[in-house]
Each structure stands twice: as C-alpha cells, then as structure tokens.
C-alpha cells in the first residue's frame, strides 16, 4: 500500500501515498496544488511527475523561509536574554504552582469574610413554591420522547410532530439531548429546570484540564439490510461476527477496535433492519465518521436513505463504501448517481464525499477504506484528556447468566479503571471487571476505547451518559435523587393526561386493543421492538405494550398477560418452568422469536384476528317469480331459475322489485314440485318460501348470495 520513504515511484501516484512519503497531510498537498491551479479535491486523486515536483518545490521554499525566520528569532532572543537574567528577583514570575496556591488562598479568605446566607435559601424555596407548578418541569438529565410526553401530560406523537417540524427525526423511545428537550418544553409553554448534581460539578472542573491525548476516530457502519455491513467489519477484525448472529442480521450494537497503519480505529456496528432505527440513530450520536455501505448491484435502498438522514442529522463525516465490487454486475456509477440526488457528491465529480469501491468478501479495497478513514479523521478535532474522572456513553446493556448486569461503553474523556464508581443515568456500580472486544480482561480504558463493564446495580439505558464519582455513597445519592425527580414528574404528568386520554377515547369510540408483555435479551433489542410496535397503525385495532423488560419470562409476566387478556412475547429469551406451567393452565398465549421481522408479521396476524371479519357478497343464482300461492303459514313464490343455482342454505337472499331491494333474509323452504330439495339449477321451476316475508309479487327477482370472507386490513 505505502512505498518506502525515498523510493521513486513509476507513473502517477495518489495524493495520500505522496503525503505518507513526505510526512505531511493529504489536505496540505491538496491546498498546495489547488493554489497552483491544479484541479484536485480528493486524497485519492492521482498526481503526475510535474505536480509532484511542484509540491516538493513549494515544501523546500517553506522550509527555507522557516529556517531564516528561526535564525532571526534566535538572534533577537539572544540579545534580550542578558537583560532578563539581571531582572531583580521580586519581578520574576512566580511558578504556576505558587500562583495557583495564592489564588486558592485568596478565594478561601473571601469566602470566610462573607456572611452566611441560610435565610436566602428559605426565601428561594418560598419563591419557587409560588410559581405555577404545572408549567415547570424538573429533570435530572436527558429523557426519552415517551418520558418527556408523560412528564408534560401530552401524547408522544405531539412531540415527534414538533421535532419533525424543525427537521429533527426521533422515535418514541429515543433519548433526546438537553438542548432539544429545552426547545420542546418552551414550545409547549413549559419552563425547564435541570437539577444539577455532584457529577456535573466535577465535570465542569475537569474542562479546564489540558487536552493531552488524541483519541482514535469512532466510526459507525450503516446501510441497508444485507448490503454487507457486518461482513465488512468481520473482514477487518478477521473474526466471524456475521456467522454468530441469527439470520445474518446484527441484532445488538457491538463496538470493536482495530489497528491500521500504527493507528487505532474504533468501529460501532449498528443493526441493519428497519425496525432498529433507534439503535442506528444512537450510534450516529457518538460517532465521528459514518461508513455508508451500499451494494453496488442493488444501489440505494430505503434503509440507505434512512441511515444517511441519521448521519446528516448528527453532523458527522460520511464515507461511502460501494460493496460487492468483485461481482460482474456491480455498477458503481449508479450508486454515485443515486446518492448525488441526496446531497452526497463524489470527490471525483467535484464533491467532497469519498467513495471507495470494496469487496467485504474478498477484501478488495478495504485497505483503501481504512486509509480514507484516517485521512478524514485528520480533519476532526479529537483532542481530549486522559486525566481526571472518566465519562462517556452507554451503547448497550444486557444480563449475562454468569456475570450479571453488563454494559458496552465508549470512554470519551478521562481514564476508566477497574474499581471506579460509575453513575449512568438512573443506576450505578463499582467496576468489577472490564473486557475489550476480544473478551480479554483490561485494567483501564482510554478515550475512544470500547469496553464491556461488569457490575451495575441495574441495567443502564442505552444512550445514558456515564461518569465516575468519588464513592458509592455519592453514587447512591445521585441516582436516588434522579429516580425520585423522574418518578414525581411522571406521576404528575400521568394525572394531567388522564382526563385527556378519557376524552380522546370517548371521541374515538371503543377501539380494540391487543395487550402485549414483551421480554428481550437486551435493552437495545427491546427498544427496537417497542419502536416497531409503535409504528403499526390501524383505525380498528392497536397493540399496547403493558409491560416490557430484559431477561427470561417469569410467572408474574404470564399473570399480568392473563389479567389483561393479552399475549406474552419473548425475543431471544426463554420462559422458566413456573411461567410455562402457569401459561398452560391459564391458556395464556406465549410467542417466541429470534428474528425481528418474523415477530412483526406475527403481531400483525394477531391484530387481524381481533378485527371483526369482513365479507363480500358473491351472486350464485337468480329466479323470477311467475306466480304466488297461498299456503298455511304464508305465501310461496312459484319461480323459474334464470341464472346459476338457488341453494336452500344460501347465506343471503334478496328480493328485487323495480330495481329496489324490498327484502333481505334467508330461504325458509325450497321445493321442486312436492319434494324438498337442497338446490334448484337454472332452467328449472321451484317453490320458494322466504323467512318472515309474505309480500312477494309476480315479477319479483329473487337473488341468492354466498358470503365470502375477506382478509381484514389493519
């Protein structure tokens, strides 16, 4: 890939290769050539011998100018150094440590001189109590769309519509950033109060520390289902991730780290099925670069556009990997053309998006893709610090039978160590052990490193921010305070929205519901299933998740479903013996799935079963009334069958007179001469007696129908 330093290359070379040889960035070479009038825009553009000489000449000029400038500055410094040495001691600058101590002493002296302000705290409390409570919401940090709707006493759909109106895409279970929560609260007439805690104060102090570390770029792989995302990471890591997953579709977020060209790159592999929108969006929130994988044969698909929109909304760099280029029907130009319609202009068309042809199966072009990642990463400010308390983001959490509560995290700042006390959202824990993506134990994790953390008290929510605090007591106080605040706000919101929900039900009329109890093996999948269910729309019937959780199905889950006349659904989990026995005795349906689109089909089929069956009429015969006979108990229509057949057990018969239906019902008796018959065919005479109808007249047309059941639509 890269040639040895000092070797001459035959023929044109790529800008990125020349940059490696000269020890400068590709961006610098592009700027030099553009200033000299050459049309280059991408590190993958080739330069000829003349262009290479232009770059080398320019660099030599810059080196000479820098050398002259350095010599001039050296003379100036030497001329003033003597005067600096003779400066009296009292005018010498104090060392940084002494000046810092002086400032600290001065602050302490000012604090001691200030009078105590306890009465002001009381005044503040009194002022708060006078404010209209229903127009103030207090939250400890980011919450989901569903939780925010409950707190404000409105429907989640109202918040989603408001977000869409400002160009922000979010699902019902997606955690919103604080700035977006503040905007939504303001739009609905609420004042947002953020309850600060110890963790926030510690983080504020750390922001003044020196940025002494450049973390690895964090890359998220996105794209349409089966376009080769997991196969690509599988090739890069030289492992078999794809084969381990059910149905060859990734069903939980995995974070992995590789080394290329002496530099580390962190990958986030997001699920590709359309129901996993929330997990894919969460991946874009922590990433620097998105690799958009597109099948060069199929081109751009629905989920390709969905992934692209998430990447754009997150404001991250995008590199397009045109996969399956080893196949004869691959058409990279089609991919470029389709994506250019969505704002991704290829670099070789004059745009600023790098398109790399690859084959995830054979490995063709994968090195070029990794090169492109490192080139794009040069443009991103990734400076942070390894000092101080660690903080980062929870990517995924799940229960493990042997190790308990586990969470995949990415460190963003500081150093996370075994033994640290971590607070994540509404839970906490002392880090008992950490594992890298190879399942090896590690003692510490630096910024940009993905690790599996063991020993949380409860499962943290994907998307929660984690931070290290000084001790377990502080951690408990913070989480208890957050829980009580959230519980209070949720309860208040539920009371406020109760009247609204009752009114809405009255207006809509009684609508059938399918209560669901859902259990999954991890939070990411659970969130995706709930999001998928929320998208199933019907005016006749709707699914309602009455309970959801992580872990195997228990007896209490089945009892809840029985009380609600609902169904228990397990995704990649089992039911314990008590749960199975209770479900069998109480006839509670239990459904088990391991592939999410099969689950969706099953739920839709169950919903159709709740809808009243619909029928269409199918005409099977006609008869014309030729005479009317009075008999005991009514009248018989002497008729002639003119079309099809008139059966005795027809589902429905109609009497047509002058083009109008004057009767609709059933046949009471059917005779051919004196014999009772089951049917009479066309061209034959018969006597028809109708149920509860004696007003039949000569000339009437009697039509017989069969009712055919139609598959109900949601």
Give a topology summary.
Elements lengths: L12 E2 H8 L3 H10 L10 E2 L1 H37 L10 H18 L4 H13 L5 E4 L5 H8 L3 H10 L12 H10 L3 E4 L3 H9 L6 E2 L3 E6 L5 H9 L3 H4 L9 E7 L2 E7 L7 H9 L3 E7 L6 H13 L2 E7 L8 H9 L13 E4 L8 H12 L5 E2 L6 E10 L3 E10 L2 E2 L3 E4 L2 E9 L5 E2 L1 E2 L4 E7 L8 E5 L2 H37 L3 E9 L2 H12 L6 E10 L4 H9 L3 E5 L5 H10 L3 E4 L2 H15 L3 E18 L2 E14 L4 E6 L2 E6 L1 E6 L2 E2 L2 E3 L3 E6 L10 E10 L4
Parallel strand pairs: 3-4, 6-8, 6-9, 9-10, 10-11, 22-23, 22-24, 24-25
Antiparallel strand pairs: 1-2, 5-12, 7-8, 13-14, 13-21, 14-20, 15-19, 16-17, 16-21, 17-18, 17-20, 26-27, 26-34, 27-32, 27-33, 28-29, 28-34, 30-31, 30-33
Would you kindly provide a written description of the structure presented here, covering whatever features stand out?
The protein is α+β, with helices and mostly antiparallel strands and 714 residues long. The strands form eight sheets. Strands 26, 27, 28, 29, 30, 31, 32, 33 and 34 form a nine-stranded antiparallel beta sheet that branches. Helix 1 (15-22) crosses helix 2, helix 6 (145-152) crosses helix 7 (156-165) and helix 12 runs parallel beside helix 13 (302-314). The longest helix has 37 residues, at 49-85. The radius of gyration is 36 Å and the shape is elongated. The model is unreliable at 1-9, 82-94, 110-133, 198-209, 272-284 and 495-499 (pLDDT under 50).
